[in-house]
Amino acid sequence: MAAATDRVHATAIASDGAAVLIRGASGSGKSDLALRCLTTSCPALRIAPGQLVADDQVLLTERSGTLFARAPDTLRGKLEVRGMGILSVPALDDVPVRLVADLTPSDAIERLPDEGASVTLFGVDVPHLNIAPFEQSAPIKLLLALARNAKDRD
Fold first, then answer.
1. Which of 34, 75, 42 is nearest to 58 (CA)?
2. Engineered SS bond to 54: which of 42, 49, 58, 150, CB 3.0-4.6 Å?
3. What distance in Å separates the CA atoms of residue 68 and residue 75, rounded to the nearest whole number?
4. DSSP string, 51-83
5. Domains in the chain, ordered, with CATH?
6. What does the pLDDT read at residue 1?
């Protein structure tokens, strides 16, 4: 029996073989944050730039208790850049989701959030983070959280 696949309104990026699902309303900054992650690295913290998995729509498939993300065929390798249009960028496929990040206003984010926070998607518990997408540090925060959660799961 084939695994069921569900389409969600989100953007996904990956780093070191693990993906983060970025959720937020239309126009909230998902694609912008993803674009900045694609160009952000921090060698001192062993953080490599992100890679696109999917923008705007993500296909999620559960297999053996793990969610995997990929883009719909028609959107694979496409990233919307406001004011420029749709750009073609290299994209990864079928990456395990190790973090869910919800775009949140900065004044609504706790300074010291619960490190064990998680959300359940399609029966799978996934670590969760709230992030303010337009803060200058947002890309590195997101990549750091992804690296930490990928390491904890492997």
1. 75
2. 58
3. 17
4. EEEESSEEEEEEETTEEEEE--GGGTTEEEETT
5. 5-153 (3.40.50.300)
6. 46
* Residue located via tokens 């960028």: 89
Q: Are strands 95-103 and 124-131 parallel, antiparallel or unpaired?
A: parallel
* Residue whose token pair is 């992650």: 37
- Overall average pLDDT of the 88-111 stretch: 95
Q: Distance between CA 18 and CA 7 in Å, rounded?
A: 19
Q: How far apart are CA 32 and CA 131, in angstroms?
A: 13
Q: How many residues does the chain have?
A: 154
Helix (H) or strand (E) holding 150: helix 138-153
Type of residue at 70: R
The whole-number average pLDDT for the span 15-34 is: 96
